Description:
Layout: H1 15-21, E1 27-33, H2 37-48, H3 50-53, H4 66-76, E2 78-84, H5 93-105, E3 114-115, H6 122-131, E4 137-140, H7 141-144, H8 154-163, E5 167-170, H9 183-192, E6 198-200, H10 208-217, E7 221-224, H11 231-236, H12 244-248, E8 255-256, H13 268-281, H14 286-302
Parallel strand pairs: 1-2, 3-4, 4-5, 5-6, 6-7, 7-8
Helix pairs in contact: 5-6, 6-8, 13-14
The protein binds zinc ion.
Amino acid sequence: xxxxxxAPPVDDADVPRWxxxxxxxxxxxxxxxxLPEPMxxxxxxxxxxxxxxxxxPWPITYRFDEDTRVDVLRxxxxxxxxPLVYPHKPDMAQWLNSWVLDFAAxxxxxxxxxxxxxxxxxxxxLGAALDAGARCIKVHVQVGAFDPLDPLxxxxxxxxxxxxxxxxVHCGHGPLRGDHTGLDVFEQVLTAHPDLVAVLAxxxxxxxxxxxxxxxxxxxxxxxxxxVGTAFTADMVAPLxxxxxxxxxxxxxxxxxxxxxxxxxxxxxEQLRAIHGWAAADDRLGAxxxxxxxxDTPARLLGV
Length: 304
Ligand SMILES: [Zn+2]
């Protein structure tokens, strides 16, 4: 039971104590955002208008310069993270890919990543990014407002599947619905590319049960914990089902740590406390579940 677990982290400064007591060398976070400064400022301006855009305020906790944002992750003991970039229009993905490749080259904890958009040449620039070492691909169906089934993307999905590199796909209806969001839409991509290693961002929020169903049916489908189970998300989007911890018992190898850092309206430790709470709620989960979610499974997916 929870007796076997260390006390959850009370705040960010307490996180290294918690991970050490779990016997972990650190955390592996598959869902973090770093962007070119001008673009990041635009993203933050969007969150500043959150009452209009989301119907409630969304204060960004980690609004710092880039070096400080990396230092905060180091202080939390995040030993590896995937810095995810994503375009909202054509002619942008390739530029983001070269930026993030450079960011990863100067940031030891960051793995190289890439993104894509349905446009001519997508398979070429995605193939080049994979050749250059990209180890995680971000696909944002809601912000990009594109159909993941667009035929232009088909060869790109095939390349990602062949490379065995995880795609972190934001395809759920939350926090905002998009023209082509929905796990039923993305399921058709999985059916066409069964070898694709797909990480459903935000655990498919708000369709948590459908996301678990995909993880059950598709061997290579995972869920990330990004914003899942926090009070903010329960209020704004949807609370988790009451029996969530029990539902994870047979899928403990399919859940990976994600946070959305730095765009969090709360401390990073709050996300970790939510995950800790699942482990504490069912004695079939416990510390072993935490070690897999916080470190082992994301490390394996990212090839660490
Ligand atoms: Zn995100």
